[in-house]
Amino acid sequence: MTPDAFKVLIYATWRDRLLVFDEPDFPEIALQVPGGTVEHPETVERAAFREFAEETGLEPKAPFRLIETCDYRFEQKGSLITHRRSCFHVALPEEPAETWVHWEQMPFGGGEPIRFRLFWLGLDEARQRLGYGMADALAHLAGKPATPALHRENLFR
After folding, report:
1. What are the E-state strand segments in the chain?
2. The domain 5-147 is classified under which CATH number: 3.90.600.10, 3.50.50.60, 3.40.50.1820, 3.90.79.10?
3. pLDDT digit string (tens) for 44-87?
């Protein structure tokens, strides 16, 4: 099955905490990790770095490690939608701020900038509070990375 969209999720950790965000102007939106849509002709690795910088304002020097690729399915307006998610982990080497606000200047699909409130949660609390199936990849943080060869190719060929 061909996915409707290719997405990246970035699980950024500092020590035993996970970076998450909410959208204060849209309280109905569940808690998330940074991520977004792979744009033509990006690789998933490039998209992960770009999306992380756009959504957090951070540009870590640490490597992004692919931990899982999976399909996430959900219903939208009566149709079944599939997103192919490439999930990455980055361990931040420097102590970050406890919380901060960052504006996503170019939301996918256009529109006004979106305000994100970023903060840290312990992994156990993140497992309970993350929405949209994003807690599923947390089990892979301590494991070995997935074989990335397939994912280094341009997805749009």
Report:
1. 5-14, 17-22, 35-37, 65-76, 79-91, 99-104, 114-122
2. 3.90.79.10
3. 999 999 999 999 999 988 999 999 999 999 999 999 999 999 99
